[in-house]
Specification:
Length: about 80
């Protein structure tokens, strides 16, 4: 063991290197987790944007259809109300 330690440096230096390597691995895992969460959030935002676009389109169709229905019925309502 002494021969290996003398070849690669003292034991304290190796322990520091191993400790730093573990810290780098922990940071890498945290960063990977953050990236995965960001990608999942991006997917969720894309779904939300698609739903928003669909809802806006449906609202426009509803408004056009409502105007088409209301205009003819206003005259019928007025005739009933005024007694024509």
């Amino acid at each position: 063991m002494a021969g290996i330690c003398s070849t690669f440096g003292d034991a304290a230096s190796i322990e520091r290197t191993v400790g730093i390597s573990r810290q780098v691995q922990e940071v890498t895992e945290i960063m990977n987790g953050s990236i995965n969460e960001l990608l999942a959030s991006q997917d969720d935002l894309q779904v939300l944007e698609d739903k928003t676009d669909a809802l806006a389109s449906q609202a426009q169709r509803f408004q056009r259809n409502a105007h088409r229905l209301v205009r003819p019925n206003v005259s019928v309502f007025l005739m009933w109300t005024l007694g024509f």
